[in-house]
């Protein structure tokens, strides 16, 4: 199978599960009797384990040829980990399998991004055009699970995740031709340590950490909050779906619409969108305001992610891209979401919707970091 259809198929399978897991896992945890502080703790620890998983697992993928075999192991490992939640709904059992699930399954996201990035180099793949298939599958997952919950109950959140990973397990074993391969005389000289000592790369990580970290209250508590205010599961699904629809539109138009945009410009508009979006969600339950705010997901997520992919592919030496991708996922996304999700869980009980206003404040320092990082460059190691 050629790279484009292979990636479209596998991104669809992986993000179908994510469309169930991301918006409704907190709802499933609440359905088995956990309190908001426990939910916030579990979700926050989950993001921390994503950090550990990305750093540990991606560290072993030293060559491009190992990317697809590693993805196959992670799909089946993720499936077995989710099955563990059937054993008991006691907190410590849920805690244990939360650690395992988040160590394994989310690493598929940076891993498939790394495969896509490699194929951009090998066959000039249009990243935005293939990534939109994952976003489309996310919509399908979010929409279907909303319908399933209303008719069959919240226990089906876990059942659908397990079924989705079974599908992903079959898709991931399709062969890709040409497969990812090491190009030229790539070395491993750009490890984690060298990138983490570079001020420009650290500034980039801080930008992404604040933008993605500001999504923590939305990711973990928007469905719970809207449900508490009388929104039906289908309405919540529609709100999440709206965000991803506009994400798809932005991915599809990115090569044409955003041609010539620098990473800094993409980060700037992502931050503008974040401030407006979180203020709106934190101050209104009017669907006429919430749906347009959700459309800003095309800014808060898509522009931030496209800026990251552009930064990694254009500013880093080729041999540093996999390490950079790993650190972006582990620190710029997982660690920041872990910290801010725990914080959100502690604040949500007392602040309710006002926790989203805190997320708007969290995004504000990005404007300074963009200005501060404009003159910084990634240096190559001495030969």
UniProtKB/TrEMBL annotation:
<feature type="transmembrane region" description="Helical">
    <location>
        <begin position="325"/>
        <end position="348"/>
    </location>
</feature>
<dbReference type="Pfam" id="PF12832">
    <property type="entry name" value="MFS_1_like"/>
</dbReference>
<keyword id="KW-0813">Transport</keyword>
<feature type="transmembrane region" description="Helical">
    <location>
        <begin position="200"/>
        <end position="218"/>
    </location>
</feature>
<dbReference type="GO" id="GO:0015528">
    <property type="term" value="F:lactose:proton symporter activity"/>
</dbReference>
<keyword id="KW-1133">Transmembrane helix</keyword>
<feature type="transmembrane region" description="Helical">
    <location>
        <begin position="93"/>
        <end position="111"/>
    </location>
</feature>
<feature type="transmembrane region" description="Helical">
    <location>
        <begin position="155"/>
        <end position="172"/>
    </location>
</feature>
<protein>
    <submittedName>
        <fullName>PPP family 3-phenylpropionic acid transporter</fullName>
    </submittedName>
</protein>
<feature type="transmembrane region" description="Helical">
    <location>
        <begin position="132"/>
        <end position="149"/>
    </location>
</feature>
<dbReference type="GO" id="GO:0005886">
    <property type="term" value="C:plasma membrane"/>
</dbReference>
<feature type="transmembrane region" description="Helical">
    <location>
        <begin position="7"/>
        <end position="27"/>
    </location>
</feature>
<feature type="transmembrane region" description="Helical">
    <location>
        <begin position="39"/>
        <end position="58"/>
    </location>
</feature>
<dbReference type="InterPro" id="IPR026032">
    <property type="entry name" value="HcaT-like"/>
</dbReference>
<keyword id="KW-0472">Membrane</keyword>
<dbReference type="GO" id="GO:0030395">
    <property type="term" value="F:lactose binding"/>
</dbReference>
<keyword id="KW-0997">Cell inner membrane</keyword>
<feature type="transmembrane region" description="Helical">
    <location>
        <begin position="230"/>
        <end position="254"/>
    </location>
</feature>
<feature type="transmembrane region" description="Helical">
    <location>
        <begin position="266"/>
        <end position="289"/>
    </location>
</feature>
<dbReference type="InterPro" id="IPR036259">
    <property type="entry name" value="MFS_trans_sf"/>
</dbReference>
<keyword id="KW-0812">Transmembrane</keyword>
<feature type="transmembrane region" description="Helical">
    <location>
        <begin position="354"/>
        <end position="371"/>
    </location>
</feature>
<keyword id="KW-1003">Cell membrane</keyword>
<dbReference type="InterPro" id="IPR024989">
    <property type="entry name" value="MFS_assoc_dom"/>
</dbReference>
<feature type="domain" description="Major facilitator superfamily associated">
    <location>
        <begin position="14"/>
        <end position="356"/>
    </location>
</feature>
<feature type="transmembrane region" description="Helical">
    <location>
        <begin position="70"/>
        <end position="87"/>
    </location>
</feature>
